[in-house]
Design a protein that fits this description.
mainly alpha, Arc Repressor Mutant, subunit A, 9 helices, 2 domains, Tetracycline Repressor, domain 2, 202 residues
Length: 202
């Protein structure tokens, strides 16, 4: 007889897994630990997620959606000024490291933990980072940067360095200079402009 899933079970599992993955790293946490922490039986867990790989993938996918909602919101605050929107992405990244419990960037961390290119969680993490790079390049193109792809790549390096430094040396260390570094970089690659309501240069 097939048991009917209890409403909220999937959410409960994901919330518990997210906490454990953040505290111990996704690779170090086993399915049995998730079972014990949720208080659910193994059958309930495996009914929602057929394997740990699938659980990690779902966790990263959920973080991906949450991160993009925040990035889109940061960008939307500077509509019509793509150069300022580029800086807003870095500002958002810096703000996200202010939490004293921050452990770096989940997407970079997951990619480092699961080295197999075919791992579902790693694929989700890499997809997020590739989309971020593409978004930065598109904004740089809209801002008429001299070399949009180069500017996007250098901003990606600032963002990754920001997360790494904030996690090790704290948000008040070198990470605190990330926005200033990004501003200098953007100013060097984007000609001076006056944004118009349509987002075009005057």
């Amino acid at each position: 007889m097939t048991r009917t899933p209890v409403p909220g079970t999937r959410r409960r599992i994901l919330q518990t897994a997210a906490r454990l993955f953040k505290e111990h790293g996704a690779r170090a946490v086993g399915m049995q630990q998730v079972v014990e922490e949720t208080g659910l039986g193994k059958s309930a867990l495996y009914r929602e997620f057929t394997s740990k790989d699938e659980l990690v993938r779902a966790w990263v996918a959920e973080l991906h959606d949450h991160a993009w909602a925040q990035i889109d919101s940061a960008i939307a605050r500077h509509e019509g000024d793509p150069a300022r929107q580029l800086l807003a992405v870095v500002e958002h990244a810096q703000e996200s490291t202010q939490d004293s419990d921050a452990h770096g960037c989940t997407f970079y961390n997951t990619s480092a933990e699961f080295r197999d290119p075919g791992h579902p969680g790693r694929r989700e993490a890499v997809d997020h980072l590739e989309r971020l790079r593409e978004r930065l390049s598109a904004l740089a193109t809209a801002a008429r940067a001299t070399d949009p792809d180069a500017l996007a790549d250098m901003l990606m390096l600032i963002i990754s360095g920001l997360y790494a430094n904030a996690a090790t040396l704290g948000p008040s260390g070198p990470a605190a200079r990330s926005v200033a570094a990004a501003r200098i970089l953007i100013d060097q690659h984007v000609p001076a402009h006056v944004p118009t309501p349509e987002g075009r240069r005057a």
